[in-house]
Write a structure and sequence with these properties.
The structure holds three protein chains of three kinds. Chain A is flat, with a radius of gyration of 24 Å. Chain A contains 13 helices and no strands. Chain A has two domains: 1-96 and 287-326, no CATH class; 111-286, MetI-like fold, CATH 1.10.3720. The relative contact order of chain A is 0.13. Chain A is mainly alpha-helical. Chain B starts with 22 loop residues before the first helix and ends in a 7-residue tail after the last helix. Helices cover 68% and strands 0% of the residues of chain B. Chain C is globular, with a radius of gyration of 25 Å. Chain C has 22 helices and 20 strands. In chain C, strands 6-7-8-3-9-10 form a six-stranded mixed beta sheet, sandwiched between helices. Chain C has a six-stranded mixed beta sheet with strand order 16-17-18-13-19-20, with helices on both faces. Chain C is 37% helix and 26% strand. Chain C is of the alpha/beta class. The chains are: A mainly alpha, B mainly alpha, C alpha/beta. At the A-B interface, helix 1, helix 6, helix 7, helix 10 and helix 11 of A face helix 6, helix 9, helix 11 and helix 12 of B.
C-alpha cells in the first residue's frame, strides 16, 4: 500500500477509536448520577410507580453495556432518546425527543460557525502571514499587541463592548439574535451579525498569532536562506519555497481555531440569545437534562475530533517524505 | 614538542561572557531591562493581590449586604451603583478579586500538581505507564474542555469544590503534555545520564537534575494556564453554572447586570456597569499575558534585531 | 579584462546579541582573482562564514555591514539594494551550504532546484539547463546521473546531496562559488569523494571560489591561497604551499598542533577491562556483533570508526546503559553485571565517563562547586571543608583556579567546560575513564590542551582510557592500542604501530587513506583502495 494511503487509513482508524472512547465517556456520565435523580426530575410528589417506569424507560434495569449499545445504535440512526424536561410527577409524559430539540438549532449553530469562519479564516491568514513577512515592523508590533490584548479578553467582554457600541449607543444591529426558522438569508445574516462579529474578533486574534509563529518558523529554515542566496525574489521565496511546506502547519492552525470556535459559540449564543446548540446545552446543564447534555456534548466532541482529523490528513498528504517514499 | 603559543592557558580562554553577579543582582538587572508592558503587568498583578488579600478592609460594604434600591445609579454612597437586588457593585468587585482569582489560582495549582507530577513520572518512566497516561490524555483532550466541564457539572452540580476539581482535572491534561514533553528533552541530556551512571536515586535525579531545568517553561505555562482557567471559570459563571450566588464573582456579575447595557443611551454609566466586572477579568489576563510574554522572550533567549 | 574578481576592503560587520551590537568582522581585506580558489580558515567564532556570505553582499538576519566595500567585478555590493543584489545571486555568484539536507527544499525535485536560478536568469532554457545538470551530476560521480535529479532530497544520501548542491552552484556557470564547510558533516570516506568531485569541477570551469573550513588539511587540497582568520581579523595570508611549509604566525602553527602531539611508550601492564565476544542490539536492530576489546592498565585504547560503526555503543555496554545480549564485560578478571542497576557503587565509581558535548554533560543550573563536589560526596563521603578543599585541588589538577568555583557552565568556554567534566570524572577516583569523542567539538588549540592534560593525568594517576573517536589524527597522537570498527564489528585491532603500518585490513586501509594530509598534492596523488 502507498505510504500516504497507509498513514491516512491509520489516522482515520485512530480517529474512530477516539470517537468511540469519547462516546463511552459521555455515556458513562449517566452512570455517575446519584440514585435519587428520578425524584429530582419528576418532582417530590412522584409515586414509586412513576419513578420505576421512568427508570425502566431509561433502561436502568438493564446492564450498562447493553444500554450503551442501544444508545449508540440509536445515535447513529438519529435517535438520541427523550428529554428529561416535560415530565411530571403524575406520570404524564410531555417530553420531546432530543433530536427534535437539537435539529433546527444545529442548523443555526452551523450557520453561525460557517458565517464566522468565512470572514475570520482569510482575515487571520492575511494578518498572520503579513505580520510574519514584515516581522518586527511597526505594523507587526501593533497587530501583535492588539491580538495579545484580544486573546486576554473573555468572549462575553468582547460581546458586551460590541453591544454597547453597536446596539445601545448607535443602534445598527439587533442585540438579540432571535431567528425564525423561515427567515431569508439576508435577514439571517443581519441577525447573526453581532455574534459572528464577536466570534470573529476572538478567533482572528488566536489564529493570527499562531499563523505568524508558524510562518516565522518556516522562514527560518536553511532552505529559505538558500533560496534567497540563489537570487529568488521575496515573492518567489514565499510562493515557491515557503508555501508548499506551509500547508500542514496552516491546516493545523485553522483546524485548531475552528475547534476553538465550537467552544466559543456556547458563550456567544447565550449572550445574544442565539437559538443554537450551545444555548440549548447550557440550559440543559442548568436543568440537569442529561440526555440533551449528552447529545450536545457528542455533537461538539465529534466536530472537534473530525476537524483535527482533517488537519492531520492535510498534513499527511502534503508531506513530501510520505508522498515520495524512498 | 609544542607549538602552542607561549601565552596560552586554559584559565584565560575566552568565554562567551563572564558575569560574576549574585542571583539578586541578576534579578534586578533583568527587571531593570523589562519593557513597559511587563512592568505594567506586574503592577496590575500586585494590585489584584492586595485587593484580594485585604478585601474586607478595602471594600466599603459587605459582600452580600443588600440595600433598599436595586439598580441604583452611580453616586457618592454607591460609587458604581447597586445590582439587581441592591448590593453595592464596588464592594462586590473588590470581593470578586478574592473569590474569582482565588478559585482560579487554586484550580491552576491543583492542575499543576496532578498534571506536572504525572508528566514528570511519565517522562522518566517511558514504559507502559507513560503509554497509558499519554493515550488517556489524548482521548480526554479530544473533548473540548468547556464542553466536558459542562457535562460533568450537569452531573455533579455546581459548587466551588466541584468546579475546582473538574476544571483542574481537565486542565491537568494540558499541563501533563507540556511537562512530559519538556521533561523528555531534559531526561535524554547527558548530565542526567551522568547522574544515573553515578548511581543517583530517582528522587535525586528528579529533584536536582530535571526539575531546575524544566522550571522556566513551567512557570510561563503556569501563567498561561492560569489565564485559561480563569477565563473558563468566568465563562462558566457567566453561563450560570459556575460560581454560585451569593458569592461575589465577576463572571456572574456580568450576567446579573447585563440588562443594564440597554440603558446606555440614557445613562452611559449604567451601560458601563456590566462591563466593569468584565474588564476586571480582562485586565488581569492582559497583565498576566504581558508578563508571561516578556518572561518567555527573556528565558528563550530569542534575539530580535531592532529595526 | 580586469583580473581582479572580488575586492573587499576594510569590511566591518556587527551582530546583535544579548541586547547589544558585537563586532564580528573587524576590518578585513580580501582580494580574489578570476579562477582563483581561496581557503578561508579559522576556528569557531573567527567570523569566516560571515565573511564568506558577505563576499556575496549577504548578511544573516541580525547582522549588518557597518563599514567597508565589497567590489565584485567593478560594482560595490555593499551599496546595492537587495533587489539589485539578487541579480548577482544564483547567477554570477552561488553558494554551497554546510548542511545540504536542510538546505534543499523538501517539496521539490532535485533537478528542478538545480536549474531554478539558471532558468530564472534566462542563462539557458529549462531543457538545456536540465541536460547540463545531468552532465554535471555525471561529472560529479553521482550514481544514476540521468535519473537522480528526479528524486526528492530525502531520497538520497548526505554525500550525494552535497554533490547535487555543487551541481546546483555550478549550473549557472558563476564567476564565484562560496563553499561554506561543505564536508564538515560527512564521514571521512564520504568526504574524500565529495572533495574530489568539487575540485574537479571547479578546475574544469576555471571558477573562482572561496572555500571555508576549519580543517587545514582539507583546505590544502582545494585552495591556491589560504587566509587565516581569528576573532574577525586576518592573521595571515599566503599561497598554500608557503603556508604549509613555513607559516609565519604562532596561531597558524597551532592549527595543526594536535597532529604534532606524540605519546611516550607506556610500560605493559595487566588488562583492567576485557570486553569478550559482546553482541548487543537496540530493540530488534543488532548494533554490535561479537566484539572483543582489551584495555591494559595505564594505557589508552582508541576505538575508531565512522558513524554507525557502533563505537559509542561499546561505551554504553561497558557502562551498563545498554545491557549486552551476549558475551561478558570483565573488570579486573571479574564479570560485571550487565545492567547498571545490578552494579554496586564501587563498580560504578571505578569506571567514569566523559562526553563529547560538555554543554549537555553538565547541568546548566549547577555551579562548578556542585558539579565536582557531588561525586566527592556521593562516592567518598566528603563534606564541608574537606570537600571544598578537594574541589580546589581538582581544579588545580585541570589547570583552572579558584575563580571558577562559583561559575555556571554557561560562564565557561568550551575547553574549560570539558576540563570541568574531566575533574568531575577524576573526583570519583576512577581507574578507567571512557572518553566519547571528547575533543571533536573543540577547536584545534583547545583540543591539544585537553589531550595533553589527559596524557599528564594518565602518567600521574596511572589511569586507563578507552578513547572513542572518528578522528584519525587524534588516534595517532594519543593511543597505545587501536581498535578499528565498522558496522558493529571490530575489523582490526592491535598496538598503534601494528594498525598504522601496512598490511591493513581493506576497510582500515580505506579509512586511513581517506584522511586528508597536510600536503597539497595528497588528493592528486591519492589512489583509494577498492572495498570488496
Amino acid at each position: 500500500m502507498h505510504p500516504v494511503l497507509k498513514t491516512v487509513v491509520q489516522r482515520l482508524g485512530l480517529g474512530l477509536v477516539t470517537l468511540f472512547i469519547v462516546s463511552i465517556i459521555i455515556f458513562a456520565a449517566i452512570e455517575l448520577l446519584p440514585g435519587d435523580f428520578g425524584e429530582a426530575v419528576l418532582g417530590q410528589a412522584a409515586t414509586e410507580d412513576t419513578v420505576a417506569a421512568f427508570r425502566r424507560e431509561l433502561g436502568l434495569d438493564k446492564p450498562a453495556v447493553l444500554r450503551y449499545v442501544d444508545w449508540i445504535a440509536g445515535a447513529v440512526q438519529g435517535d438520541l432518546g427523550n428529554s428529561f424536561s416535560g415530565r411530571s410527577s403524575s406520570g404524564v409524559d410531555r417530553s420531546r425527543p432530543v433530536v427534535d430539540l437539537i435539529g433546527p438549532r444545529l442548523w443555526n449553530t452551523m450557520f453561525l460557525a460557517s458565517f464566522t469562519a468565512v470572514i475570520a479564516v482569510p482575515l487571520a491568514l492575511f494578518l498572520g502571514i503579513s505580520a510574519a513577512l514584515y516581522r518586527n515592523s511597526i505594523y507587526d508590533r501593533v497587530v501583535n499587541a492588539m491580538t495579545l490584548t484580544t486573546i486576554s479578553f473573555p468572549e462575553f467582554f468582547v460581546a458586551y463592548i460590541l453591544i454597547l457600541v453597536l446596539t445601545s449607543l448607535w443602534p445598527i444591529f439587533p442585540s438579540l439574535s432571535n431567528i425564525s426558522p423561515d427567515a431569508d438569508l439576508l435577514d439571517r445574516l443581519y441577525r447573526s451579525a453581532m455574534p459572528a462579529l464577536t466570534l470573529t474578533l476572538v478567533i482572528v486574534a488566536h489564529m493570527m498569532r499562531m499563523t505568524r509563529a508558524a510562518i516565522i518558523n518556516l522562514l527560518a529554515s536553511p532552505y529559505i536562506q538558500m533560496a534567497r542566496l540563489s537570487g529568488a525574489s521575496q515573492r518567489e521565496v514565499i510562493l515557491k519555497h515557503a508555501l508548499p511546506n506551509a500547508w500542514a502547519p496552516i491546516a493545523t492552525v485553522i483546524a485548531f481555531n475552528l475547534a476553538y470556535l465550537v467552544v466559543g459559540v456556547v458563550v456567544v449564543e447565550v449572550v445574544f440569545v442565539y437559538p443554537g446548540v450551545g444555548q440549548l446545552m447550557v440550559d440543559a446543564v442548568s436543568s440537569r437534562d442529561i440526555p440533551v447534555v449528552q447529545a450536545c456534548a457528542l455533537i461538539f466532541a465529534a466536530t472537534y475530533i473530525i476537524l483535527n482529523l482533517i488537519a492531520d490528513i492535510i498534513g499527511i498528504v502534503t508531506n513530501p517524505k510520505l508522498l515520495h517514499p524512498k | 614538542m609544542t607549538q602552542t603559543p607561549q601565552n596560552y592557558s586554559a584559565a584565560n580562554e575566552k568565554t562567551a561572557f563572564v558575569s560574576e553577579r549574585s542571583r539578586w543582582d541578576r534579578v534586578k538587572l533583568t527587571l531593570g531591562k523589562s519593557p513597559w508592558t511587563a512592568r505594567f503587568g506586574m503592577i496590575v498583578i500586585l494590585f489584584y493581590v492586595i485587593l484580594g488579600l485585604f478585601a474586607p478592609w478595602i471594600a466599603p460594604y459587605g459582600e452580600a449586604e443588600v440595600f433598599a434600591v436595586p439598580f441604583a445609579p452611580w453616586d457618592a454612597t454607591h460609587v458604581f451603583g447597586t445590582d439587581q437586588i441592591g448590593r453595592d457593585i464596588l464592594s462586590r468587585l473588590i470581593y470578586g478579586a478574592r473569590n474569582t482569582v482565588g478559585i482560579a489560582l487554586a484550580t491552576t495549582l491543583l492542575s499543576f500538581i496532578i498534571g506536572g507530577g504525572l508528566g514528570l513520572v511519565a517522562a522518566i518512566n517511558r514504559s507502559y505507564l507513560d503509554q497509558l497516561l499519554s493515550r488517556g490524555v489524548d482521548v480526554l483532550m479530544a473533548i473540548p474542555s468547556l464542553i466536558f466541564a459542562l457535562v460533568l457539572l450537569s452531573i455533579f452540580g455546581s459548587s466551588a469544590i466541584n468546579l475546582i476539581i473538574i476544571i483542574a482535572v481537565l486542565d491537568a491534561t494540558r499541563v501533563f503534555r507540556l511537562t512530559r514533553s519538556v521533561a523528555v528533552n531534559v531526561v535524554v541530556m547527558e548530565y542526567v545520564e551522568a547522574a544515573r551512571l553515578r548511581g543517583e536515586g530517582l528522587g535525586w535525579v528528579m529533584r536536582r537534575e530535571i526539575l531546575p531545568n524544566i522550571m522556566p517553561p513551567l512557570v510561563a505555562e503556569f501563567g498561561l494556564r492560569f489565564c485559561f482557567v480563569f477565563l473558563t471559570i468566568a465563562a462558566l459563571s457567566f453561563l450560570g453554572v459556575g460560581i454560585q450566588p451569593p458569592t461575589a464573582d465577576w463572571g456572574s456579575m456580568v450576567r446579573e447586570n447585563a440588562s443594564l447595557i440597554q440603558f446606555a443611551q440614557y445613562d452611559i454609566k449604567a451601560g458601563l456597569t456590566p462591563l466593569l466586572p468584565a474588564s476586571a477579568i480582562a485586565l488581569l489576563t492582559v497583565a498576566v499575558n504581558f508578563v508571561v510574554d516578556w518572561f518567555l522572550h527573556h528565558t528563550s533567549g530569542i534575539k530580535d534585531t531592532p529595526k | 579584462m580586469n583580473d581582479i574578481l572580488l575586492d573587499i576592503k576594510g569590511l566591518k560587520i556587527q551582530g546583535w546579541s544579548d541586547e547589544k551590537w558585537h563586532p564580528i568582522i573587524k576590518g578585513v581585506d580580501l582580494t580574489l582573482r578570476r579562477g582563483q580558489v581561496m581557503g578561508l580558515i579559522g576556528e569557531s567564532g573567527a567570523g569566516k562564514s560571515t565573511l564568506g556570505l558577505a563576499a556575496m553582499g549577504f548578511t544573516q538576519p541580525g547582522c549588518q555591514i557597518t563599514d567597508g566595500s565589497i567590489v565584485f567585478d567593478g560594482v560595490d555590493l555593499a551599496k546595492l539594494s537587495d533587489a539589485e543584489k539578487r541579480k548577482y545571486w544564483g547567477n554570477r555568484m552561488t553558494y554551497v551550504a554546510q548542511s545540504a539536507a536542510a538546505s534543499f527544499n523538501p517539496a521539490h525535485r532535485l533537478i528542478d532546484q538545480t536549474v531554478a536560478s539558471t532558468v530564472r536568469f534566462g542563462i539557458s532554457s529549462e531543457a538545456e539547463a536540465k541536460a547540463d545538470a545531468r552532465t554535471l551530476y555525471g561529472a560529479l560521480n553521482l550514481p544514476h546521473a540521468d535519473t537522480i535529479g528526479d528524486r526528492y532530497p530525502h531520497q538520497v544520501s548526505g554525500g550525494q546531496l552535497q554533490r547535487v548542491m555543487t551541481a546546483m552552484a555550478m549550473s549557472p556557470r558563476p564567476d564565484l562559488i562560496i563553499f561554506d564547510e561543505p564536508t564538515t558533516a560527512l564521514d571521512v570516506t564520504t568526504q574524500v569523494e565529495v572533495l574530489r568531485a568539487m575540485r574537479k569541477i571547479v578546475e574544469e570551469f576555471n571558477t573562482a571560489a572561496i572555500y571555508i573550513t576549519h580543517d587545514l588539511a582539507v583546505v590544502a587540497q582545494m585552495a591556491d591561497v589560504i587566509k587565516v582568520l581569528r576573532y574577525g581579523q586576518e592573521v595571515e595570508e599566503a599561497d598554500t604551499r608557503t603556508m604549509l611549509a613555513a607559516p609565519k604566525e604562532d596561531y597558524t602553527k597551532s592549527l595543526w598542533s594536535v597532529r604534532a602531539l606524540q605519546k611516550e611508550e607506556r610500560p605493559k601492564q595487566d588488562n583492567i577491562l576485557s570486553v569478550k565476544n559482546v553482541s548487543a542490539s537496540y530493540g530488534k536492530v543488532p548494533v554490535l556483533h561479537n566484539v572483543s576489546i582489551d584495555v591494559p592498565r595505564g594505557s589508552t585504547v582508541s576505538v575508531v570508526g565512522e558513524s554507525g560503526s557502533g563505537k559509542s555503543t561499546v561505551a554504553r555496554v561497558i557502562t551498563g546503559l545498554l545491557p549486552q545480549r551476549d558475551g561478558v564485560v570483565e573488570y579486573q578478571g571479574m564479570s560485571l553485571p550487565a545492567k547498571l542497576n545490578d552494579r554496586n557503587k564501587d563498580q560504578k565509581k571505578r569506571i567514569q565517563m566523559i562526553y563529547q558535548m560538555a554543554d549537555t554533560a553538565m547541568n546548566p543550573r549547577q555551579t562548578v562547586r556542585e558539579i565536582i563536589g557531588r561525586p566527592l560526596e556521593f562516592y567518598l563521603g566528603l563534606t564541608g571543608r574537606a570537600k571544598e578543599e578537594r574541589v580546589r585541588e581538582l581544579l588545580s589538577m585541570i589547570e583552572l583556579d579558584d575563580r571558577f568555583i562559583d561559575r555556571l557552565p554557561s560562564e565557561l568556554s568550551g575547553g574549560q567546560k570539558q576540563r570541568i567534566c574531566i575533574a568531575r570524572a577524576l573526583a570519583a577516583e576512577p581507574e578507567l575513564i571512557i572518553c566519547d569523542e571528547v575533543t571533536s567539538a573543540l577547536d584545534q588549540i583547545v583540543q591539544e590542551g585537553i589531550l595533553k592534560l589527559l596524557m599528564r593525568l594518565q602518567t600521574e594517576l596511572n589511569l586507563s582510557y578507552l578513547f572513542i573517536t572518528h578522528d584519525i589524527s587524534t588516534v595517532r597522537a594519543i593511543s597505545d592500542h587501536v581498535v578499528v570498527m565498522q558496522l558493529g564489528r571490530v575489523v582490526e585491532q592491535g598496538t598503534k604501530d601494528a594498525v598504522f603500518q601496512p598490511p591493513h585490513d581493506p576497510y582500515t586501509d580505506l579509512l586511513l587513506s581517506s584522511v586528508p594530509e597536510m600536503d597539497p598534492d595528497w588528493l592528486t596523488n591519492l589512489k583509494l583502495p577498492e572495498l570488496t
